[in-house]
Design goal:
Radius of gyration: 21 Å
Shape: globular
CATH superfamily: CAP
Number of strands: 4
CATH architecture: 3-Layer(aba) Sandwich
Strand order of the largest sheet: 1-3-4-2
Distance between the termini: 79 Å
Number of helices: 6
Oligomer: single chain
Largest sheet: 4 strands, mixed
Helix content: 40-55%
Structural class: alpha+beta
Order of helices and strands: HHEHHEHHEE
Number of domains: 1
Length: about 160
């Protein structure tokens, strides 16, 4: 009888262990369904891609994060995918006082996850060239959700260097 109770207890405990929630990787968080963009995961993903192509890593920059967020939010507010929805990148950098010696920007819309946005950029020659820009060391990335728009999620990636050339 003890053996039967022990087996039942082990089976019950095994069933509990099997029900533990599986944490989803940050790159698959669905922005359109309440997911949050993880900029550290984005920097890691882009850095690995750059390193696989013989380039240096990039780190998250708080000022570039603010600029990327403002650009994504402006696109979402206007329901318009456009680099210049507020102003060209160089003007936005100058207006913020960011000391960029070089900078590039990718924008996109309609991708719900970081993995989708990254894949879209990687598969587009001009966007890929930006991610593989030699000499950039910092990034800001943002995704803004707007339920009443065609694309739902608007993305901005700004990569820059503030180091003297």
């Amino acid at each position: 009888m003890r053996a039967i109770i022990a087996i039942i207890a082990l089976l019950a405990l095994g069933g509990c262990a099997g029900e533990a929630p599986v944490e989803q990787p940050a790159m698959y968080a669905d922005i359109a369904n309440g997911g949050r963009l993880d900029p550290i995961a984005a920097a890691s993903m882009i850095s690995l891609y750059r390193q696989n192509n013989g380039l240096g890593a990039v780190t998250v920059d708080p000022e570039l994060m603010k600029l990327a967020e403002a650009q994504s939010q402006a696109m979402a507010n206007r329901n318009k995918l456009d680099h210049d929805v507020k102003a060209p990148l160089a003007q936005r950098l100058n207006a913020s006082g960011y000391p960029a010696t070089q900078a590039v920007e990718n924008v996109s819309a309609g991708y719900h996850t970081l993995a989708e946005a990254f894949s879209g950029w990687r598969d587009s020659p001009p966007h890929r060239a930006n991610m593989l820009k030699n000499g950039v060391t910092k990034l800001g990335i943002a995704a803004s959700y707007a339920s009443n728009t065609k694309y739902k999620v608007f993305w901005t990636l700004i990569m820059a260097s503030s180091d003297p050339r």
